[in-house]
Amino acid sequence: MSEIRWGPIKQKWVIIAAERSLRPDDFITREEPIREPKSCPFDYGNEGITPPEIFAIRTDGSRANSPGWKVRVVSNKFPALRIEGEMKREGVGLYDYMSGIGAHEVVIETPEHKKRIHDMTVDEIKLVFYAWQERMKDLAKDNRFKYIQIFKNHGAQAGASLAHSHSQIIATPIIPSTVTNELIPCKEHFSKKERCLFCDVLKDEILRGDRIVLLTDFFVVFCPYDSFFPFEMWILPREHNHDFTTLNSDGLYQLSITLKDVLTKLLNLLNDPPLNIVLHTSPIQRLSPSHPDYWRTLVQDYHWHIELIPRLTRIAGFEWGTGYYINPTFPEESARLLRDV
Ligand SMILES: [Zn+2]
Ligand SMILES: [Zn+2]
């Protein structure tokens, strides 16, 4: 029997269409391999092909823009938004115009061309998270930016254009609506109950247990009640925290263990599906003259997390028309299968 579900965080309906329920085998994709360039710009020795590095974690003694790095961050060669220029905002008739200012960076996660994120050691994954934090802290100093979005596209169907393992950072002069749509219910929940909405959801999920994929002393991984996609998972710190950049070294290590465990589960159950890994964290808190106490409770009311979306279903006319997703797998079933891997 199908169900139509709604959750307090995304505040959107989703159709869980049980009649279409599929087994993991039905989801195993035969993905078109990404077309490989003759010479990969992310390999050792090709540092000159990419824009100059903005940040790198290097072995002692190695020079910038030469081999010897472990993680390297460069500007995107084809940026969606550019760092140079003046920030202009104006109304154009009924429309709003804003200059395309922002930052678009690429985190090259390993010098090894064939190494995928699930092949990396826990220490190597930790370096990637550390690079994310360092870039976020640096970009947050730029007054023009309001949000820093970090994401990773793994596999061609998930949007990756290069096979070499990398993630992307985009700083934007506006808070993305997906983030605002989460911030508003969190703020409202807190103003009524003086509790974090995510913490309340976590408590309930741990109590129920049937949507939990992994539970450690530090992190919880679960398939949300109102999952839009089959095998969708969220990773949340068990201790309340609104800002990913404040996670300390031990926390980064624990997060790396958790991510590696979850990726290994996906690899074994679904044979390395195309995947989006998306960080949701606090916007950059700046005083805004029009909203003087906009961020007043943000530290208590928002909870950073990572969303993992295996790209197994397609977005088509129904989703476009209604804004609702059809998920062919019950999240409880996804969680059970992932737990049992
Ligand atoms: Zn490469
Ligand atoms: Zn919380």
Explained architecture:
The protein has 341 residues and is an alpha+beta fold. Helix content is 27%, strand content 23%. The protein contains 8 helices and 15 strands. The chain has helices at residues 24-27, 122-139, 177-193, 197-208, 249-270, 298-301, 317-322, 331-340; strands spanning 3-6, 13-16, 53-58, 69-75, 89-92, 95-98, 103-108, 147-154, 166-172, 212-215, 219-222, 233-237, 275-280, 305-310, 325-327. Strands 3-4-7-9-8-13-14-12-11-10 form a 10-stranded antiparallel beta sheet, with helices on both faces. Strands 1-2-15 form a 3-stranded mixed beta sheet. It has a two-stranded antiparallel sheet with strand order 5-6. The mean pLDDT is 92. The structure holds zinc ion (2 copies). Residues 40, 42-43, 113, 164 line the site of one zinc ion.
Topology:
Layout: E1 3-6, E2 13-16, H1 24-27, E3 53-58, E4 69-75, E5 89-92, E6 95-98, E7 103-108, H2 122-139, E8 147-154, E9 166-172, H3 177-193, H4 197-208, E10 212-215, E11 219-222, E12 233-237, H5 249-270, E13 275-280, H6 298-301, E14 305-310, H7 317-322, E15 325-327, H8 331-340
Helix pairs in contact: 2-5
Bound molecules: zinc ion (ZN) (2 copies).
